[in-house]
Automatic annotation (TrEMBL):
<feature type="domain" description="tRNA(Ile)-lysidine/2-thiocytidine synthase N-terminal">
    <location>
        <begin position="60"/>
        <end position="223"/>
    </location>
</feature>
<dbReference type="InterPro" id="IPR035107">
    <property type="entry name" value="tRNA_thiolation_TtcA_Ctu1"/>
</dbReference>
<feature type="short sequence motif" description="PP-loop motif">
    <location>
        <begin position="65"/>
        <end position="70"/>
    </location>
</feature>
<keyword id="KW-0547">Nucleotide-binding</keyword>
<dbReference type="GO" id="GO:0000049">
    <property type="term" value="F:tRNA binding"/>
</dbReference>
<keyword id="KW-0808">Transferase</keyword>
<comment type="pathway">
    <text>tRNA modification.</text>
</comment>
<keyword id="KW-0004">4Fe-4S</keyword>
<protein>
    <recommendedName>
        <fullName>tRNA-cytidine(32) 2-sulfurtransferase</fullName>
        <ecNumber>2.8.1.-</ecNumber>
    </recommendedName>
</protein>
<dbReference type="InterPro" id="IPR012089">
    <property type="entry name" value="tRNA_Cyd_32_2_STrfase"/>
</dbReference>
<feature type="binding site">
    <location>
        <position position="143"/>
    </location>
    <ligand>
        <name>[4Fe-4S] cluster</name>
    </ligand>
</feature>
<feature type="binding site">
    <location>
        <position position="140"/>
    </location>
    <ligand>
        <name>[4Fe-4S] cluster</name>
    </ligand>
</feature>
<keyword id="KW-0694">RNA-binding</keyword>
<dbReference type="InterPro" id="IPR014729">
    <property type="entry name" value="Rossmann-like_a/b/a_fold"/>
</dbReference>
<keyword id="KW-0820">tRNA-binding</keyword>
<dbReference type="GO" id="GO:0034227">
    <property type="term" value="P:tRNA thio-modification"/>
</dbReference>
<dbReference type="GO" id="GO:0005524">
    <property type="term" value="F:ATP binding"/>
</dbReference>
Amino acid sequence: MSAVISETGATSAATGNVAVDSVKKAQKLAFENNKLEKRLFRLTGQAIGDYNMIEQGDRVMVCMSGGKDSYAMLDILLKLRERAPIDFSIVAVNLDQKQPGFPEHVLPDYFRAIGVDFHIENQDTYSIVKRVVPEGKTTCSLCSRLRRGILYRVAGELGATKIALGHHRDDIIETLFLNMFYGGKLKGMPPKLQSDDGKNVVIRPLAYVRESDLERYAEYKQFPIIPCTLCGSQPNLKRGEMKALIRQWEKQHPGRIKSIFSSLSNVIPSHLMDAGIHDFKNLRATGQPDPLGDTAFDEVPCGDESDAGIIRIAQFDD
């Protein structure tokens, strides 16, 4: 009898320990998710403020692909709008490109559920891309051009003053590397720019946000993600190579990607080689010391930022 009682007690204790562990894990997860949400809101708000992305009275067209980035962007912008000191409106727009098997009900159902204004633009760009691009070739370039032109037109029809895209920090660095490695250009992806047609302003509110944080946020929010089967799943894409490189560096050399990203906002034209942005031909000695002269090439030991006038790294919380 005593053995039975002892066994029952041990079982109850074990069950109780499991329950306690489960509660602790749930509390820790809730704490981490709260930190993540605050970080995303802060970084998005910081980017919007730094580049004056959204102004009083703007109508922001949020481009929705059905991927994690666009879902997160819409969610964050809607919440930031509630706290913003200015008034602006949001309209979510999805371009249904008529890809086979595309679940066309998912986004409209989601938009209705959260109560946001939305527009679905139906254009069969899929057939055009498949007809024009040879089998096995990358479809991204043509697809992107077609999509851009359609979205610019829709923005005008909807009265949008800003077009918001969901590109994040990793996208920006990948684009920088792609242009350097394959295009011979020192060119990235700006957080704000005038559109090709000169009629629209394009903004990237997630410019300061890491992709890994967006992945966690999508899992936390349980967004109804729609996978892209036209371009994102194509094997051997150059952008995929850049993404893998970035993730490898992030693991092997923590802080390297953050430093590269910071360099995009700390450009010194006199120490590059583009005569179009710096007048090398007419350069003459002035007789005055220059803090950005040849001393800028002096090596600064790791962790030593005493030469603040030479090395300036912008701070972005991870």
